[in-house]
Design a protein that fits this description.
This protein has 247 residues and is an alpha/beta fold. 35% of the residues lie in helices and 20% in strands. It has helices spanning 19-25, 68-71, 87-94, 117-127, 141-150, 162-168, 170-179, 194-202, 215-224, 234-243; strands at 3-7, 32-39, 45-47, 85-86, 100-105, 134-138, 155-160, 184-188, 206-210, 228-231.
Length: 247
């Protein structure tokens, strides 16, 4: 069966990466919940998608330029007054559930990797005894490799942009993943097709899809039988999977 990951907690249903989104996702029969992590200036692990605050909060500037005490006072837009969460708070929401954490390690401004970001995340997950229930991903191959060096999560995933896939070719993407010990690729849904899935699986790698937010994209993932896909509409994905005779 193809697994469903509630992307940013279901970003088309509830304010992304909010407590509301995660608490609602925790009630759904999805297999995974996806979210994003940046460090604060004082080293706390903050769950927010962008490296800057403006789009999703009433704050300004880069996440990494603020201490947690300042970030804790900001309000997530459309949330009815909720604040952003720390990684440990998201862990505690899902700890009583069977849902797997799908954590994306984000880079900082100008897509510059944060120093020691993967190691800090892995060490925290180890301390909270949840590393073996976590999938760790990044669009930056080096960050995925660094995370794998510090601890064996449930699975490490290299998220590949269509531009990267076009620039170096699928064969090179597969080769790089294999040579770096990365067991799974995540490709954008619009560049996934049956030959691509076959090539990735033929190399012994897992395959997932992302940006699957409408019925056609979801149907495509189910038809291709990818291992997992992320979606901002977990409700729609669950309904479509339930009616799919292949699942």
């Amino acid at each position: 069966m193809t697994d469903i990951a509630s992307h940013r907690g279901g970003a088309l249903l509830w304010p992304e990466n909010s407590r509301l989104a995660f608490e609602q996702t925790a009630k759904l029969p999805v297999e995974q919940v996806e979210f994003d992590v940046h460090p604060s200036r004082d080293g706390r692990l903050v769950v927010i998608h962008d490296d800057a605050l403006e789009r999703t909060t009433d704050g300004k500037g880069a996440v990494c330029q603020h201490d947690w005490a300042d970030l804790n006072r900001l309000i997530l837009k459309g949330s009815g007054g909720q604040r952003m969460l720390l990684l440990e708070e998201v862990v505690e929401i899902f700890r009583p559930t069977p849902i797997i954490l799908r954590l994306e390690m984000k880079p900082g401004p100008n897509r510059t990797p944060y120093p020691n970001h993967p190691a800090r995340i892995v060490d925290a997950l180890k301390a909270w005894h949840i590393l073996d229930r976590t999938v760790i991903s990044s669009f930056q191959l080096g960050s995925v490799v660094e995370a794998a060096r510090h601890g064996k999560a449930m699975r490490h995933v290299w998220l590949v942009t269509p531009a990267t896939q076009t620039d170096i070719g699928l064969a090179e993407v597969i080769k790089l993943a294999g040579s770096n010990g990365v067991p799974m690729l995540g490709l954008r849904s619009n560049v996934l097709d049956a030959p691509t899935v076959a090539a990735v699986r033929g190399a012994g790698l897992g395959i997932g899809g992302w940006a699957c937010n409408d019925a056609p994209a979801i149907a495509k993932m189910l038809e291709l039988g990818v291992d997992v896909f992320t979606t901002d509409r977990p409700d729609l994905a669950l309904a479509m999977r339930a009616s799919d005779t292949r699942s």
